[in-house]
Write a structure and sequence with these properties.
The protein has 147 residues and is an all-alpha fold. It has seven helices and no strands. α1 runs antiparallel to α2, α2 crosses α4 and α6 crosses α7.
Length: 147
Amino acid sequence: MSLREQINQDLKAAMKAKDTKKRDALRLLSSAFKQIEVDERKELSDDDVIKIIQKQVKSRNDSIQQYKKAGRDDLVAIEESEISYFEPYLPKQLSDEELTNELKTIIEQVGATSMKDMGKVMGAASKALAGKADGKRINECVKTLLS
């Protein structure tokens, strides 16, 4: 079963269980999937679905930061609950220790020695760790390792 089919099954289950919050969050995902399919005229693969979910989670995290600055805890709670419904469909994220170990290996493979080589490392790391770690986390860890 593809990831998209799993999300549709979970949406149906949420509807039957009258779980309106989960239903609404999963409908937002389905809407995002359909939008991409219509715009790009293609069938979505599991990788495409994961990228869309990651984009939605990132958007929610950005909103949470803005709402916290504005003191809107009610909206923060809504965004956090939506993220909690999206996360089960994403690959397991690497811990900080695992991320550091992976990046050390990539730095050795690329032959990076200083901050001048950051672009090479980030290019390789972004491909190798896609879905497993956020780009911001990768960037911060690479800066720490190369400095």
